[in-house]
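Field reference: "sequence" (input) and "structure" (output). Example, Ribose-5-phosphate isomerase A:
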Amino acid sequence: MDKKQLKISTFNDALDQIKDGMILGIGSGSTIELLVPKIAEKLEREQINITGVCTSNKTAFIAKELGMHVVDVNDVEHIDLAIDGADEVDPNLNLIKGGGGALFREKVIDAMAKRFVVLVDDSKLVSYLGETFKLPVEVDKFNWLLIAKEIERSKGVTAIRRMVDDVPFITDNGNYILDLVLNKDIEPFAMHEYLIHLIGVLETGYFLDVTDQVIVGTPSGVQVKNK
């Protein structure tokens, strides 16, 4: 099975958790873009209704095109269930997210959710955060270079401004992303606390102690890891 098939194999366990009347947080990225049409099919097949709150403009567009009811995050006071992907998952179900650049909005919605479920293929499982993926950090355009230099000076890690086709990547919030090259000696909780207090940092791609369940697609079948 290729990675796409492994991702799709996780969908049934996630779809079973979507119930009539829910406020559903819908994430971002390649996995979720495959999942959203399946959610729409479930709603039509079972004749149920949900309210969707999306973590990116792209996800919201796809959901609306499929006839789903989507509202702004400020229009709801809670989220019953949030479903998203991840770039890395460690043994304690801590995550790195933000490969698609929507980490701030993802964190807002995931923190609001009563239950947060993550869908990944087994290539995303790591022994420590940063093993296979850089840590995204959303930063203000105004002082991004000063932030990058400060992180490199203080923490000894490389901070790279994300580029797409030789143009700086811009988030839905109008900011830049710095991708940090981590090593196994960096403690995620301490690193997050350091980064979040730098002036100009909006949020980090560390998602720590927020995940309730990770559904993993593997060649030998689906594995469910609970908090």
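The longest helix spans residues 30-46.
Helices lie at 3-8, 11-15, 30-46, 57-65, 103-112, 144-155, 188-196.
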